[in-house]
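step: validate -> pass
step: tokenize input -> pass
step: predict -> running
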Amino acid sequence: MSPFEVTDGVYGIDTGLFGESFTSVYLFDDDEPTLVDSGTKATAETVVSALRDLDVPPESIENLVLSHVHADHSGGAGSLLEYAPEANVYIHEMTAPHLVDPSGLIESSKRAMGEHFVSMGEQLPVPESNIVPVSNEGTRIDIGANTLELVYAPGHSPDHFAVWNPERRLCFAAECLGGYLEAAEQWVPPSTLPNFDIEASEKAIDRVEALDPELIIFPHFGVWPGEPEHAFETARRELHRFDDRIMELYESTGSVAATRRAVSEKLLDIAPPYDEQVVSFYSGLITDGYLKYHGVDL
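step: predict -> pass
step: emit ->
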């Protein structure tokens, strides 16, 4: 899995989680080399290898910008700090303590991800001295020719940031909009456990759209291939289409397990090219996120 160029000096790194083209982190190769998201503990060495392929020594990383605390986005931070022990780690102030002591986060992730958690690994603690807690107001990070602005946009999770690069009008949308699995040309909504919120997600889409980006990149996965306005239209449509269909399926089956199976069969047309493990991962989290939002006892 080779790194891919987003634009001059900005590269995507496929972490290899659950195979190719599922999860990526992004490198800004600037005066202060900066990674947006870290991947998982289990994929940290893949990220390190890709940095070397890009002639960026992992020891030179000065900033890790974490969009949110979920294990597939923050779980590799502690491992990457073994190479770059002085790097700043930016994360929302409400979940920063979970990086310092990840024991509760690990248990929560195991409950949410079930059998899939083993593929991610139990993350290492991040020293409190490395953490730069960020409030809802966001922050601006000067890294050289580029600046990165953390834009608070909860919905997928309460601690969620998009990352805006105004010089290139490039938006790392994280999971504010959902995800676009490019290998299957399939959009997936931002629903997940434990704190997905549809109304907040609607506002997050509005806030990211107001940035007026020219390029949108996703951790799941890659560069949006169409016009930006089409991404926002798709995000709104799919947020509510999945909501309507999942509740219909639950009402018709009366079973959470049966609803998960129906979602994988009727709504997630991604295997192939993606492995069945990805289907199982997504169908569980998406289904349970919507059901929990509507008060269904899981």
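step: describe -> The chain has one domain: 4-236.
step: cleanup -> pass
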